[in-house]
Amino acid sequence: MFEDKTLVCKECGKEFVFTAGEQEFYAERGFQNEPQRCKSCRDARKNAARGPREYFTATCAACGGEARVPFEPKSDRPVYCSECFARMRGQQ
């Protein structure tokens, strides 16, 4: 029913493929318009709207090292560095 279409990005002017699967997804969601930007331009636009992410420094509850996290740590909950957090997730 759907076939891949080649579209031109209105942001960078490069061609990108609007796949049959993407077209089916758009149709299921009731979207009327085709995408106007390629994936990289859509991603850049989303990230620019968010602004830079703020990181906080805390002490890892497992190893005592420095942990940089994208949320403000609360004293009632433990915070783990990325290595300890990954190790704990692997055990579950």
Provide a short characterization of the protein structure.
35% of the residues lie in helices and 17% in strands. The protein is α+β, with helices and mostly antiparallel strands. The mean pLDDT is 92.
Described by the principal axes of the CA atoms, the overall outline is elongated
Helix content: 25-40%
Average pLDDT taken over every residue: 92
Helices and strands: which structural class? alpha+beta
Radius of gyration: 21 Å
Low-confidence stretches: none
What does the main sheet amount to? 2 strands, antiparallel
How big a fraction of the residues is strand? 15-25%
What oligomeric arrangement do these chains adopt? single chain
Q: How many extended strands?
A: 4
Distance between the termini: 44 Å
Biggest sheet, strands in spatial order?
A: 1-2
Number of helices: 3
Helix-strand topology string:
EEHHEEH
Description:
This is Zinc-ribbon domain containing protein. InterPro entries: CxxC-x17-CxxC_dom (IPR026363), Zn-bnd_dom_prob (IPR025306). The protein is an alpha+beta fold and 92 residues long. Helix content is 35%, strand content 17%. It contains three helices and four strands. It has helices at residues 20-29, 39-50, 82-91; strands at residues 5-8, 15-18, 56-59, 66-69. The strands form two sheets. A two-stranded antiparallel ribbon has the order 1-2. Strands 3-4 form a two-stranded antiparallel sheet. A hairpin with a 6-residue loop joins β3 and β4 (66-69). The protein is elongated. The relative contact order is 0.12. The mean pLDDT is 92.
